[in-house]
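Action item from last week, closing it out:
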Amino acid sequence: MNEVKWFRVIYLIVWPFFNLFHPCRPIGRENIPEGGAVVCGNHTHASDPFFIVFAFRREHPLAIMAKAELLRVLVIGPLLRLIGVFGVDRGRSDVGAIKHALRCLKEGRKLLLFPEGTRVKEGAEVEAKTGAAMLALRAGVPIVPVWIPQRRNWFRRTDVVIGEPFLPQTAGRRPTAEDYERVTDELMARIDALKERWQHGQAG
């Protein structure tokens, strides 16, 4: 059984329990594109990947890039690998992780990663990494911004806002470091815009 099939099996097992304690309401599912895409969200809680996975639902299985340390944990690590989670060594250029991510995208799969690289509470400032931009530009796939509110209550619905995908462009034939920075800035601006749109809707 391949990763996608295992993903869908584990999804059916985990979803009822997660949905009982933290029901999720996806907003903007019509924005999910067909084929490969880099899915990027803000990251304030360890549960963020669950919210995004369940917002995208079984028909859009996600490959997930996570810190390598997580996959070294007994029992949890092998289970995560089984469903398509793969590790990246932070703080250095992990060529193997990059190649695996590009392969997933070129196979038409969606890749979930968090540009900030770590959990960041609202109001704190951490410079976003350019990995998402680099992967999208190299694979020629769109980026899908996602925003999840930091505050979540047990047994209460949490919205997951899925924004419109955008296809990053380069000025020249090959992307440069400046292109990666520019696309990353646009991505983070789009995630912030989703937050503002959601807050406006709550106040309206």
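Closing note: The CA atoms of residues 65 and 123 lie 25 Å apart.
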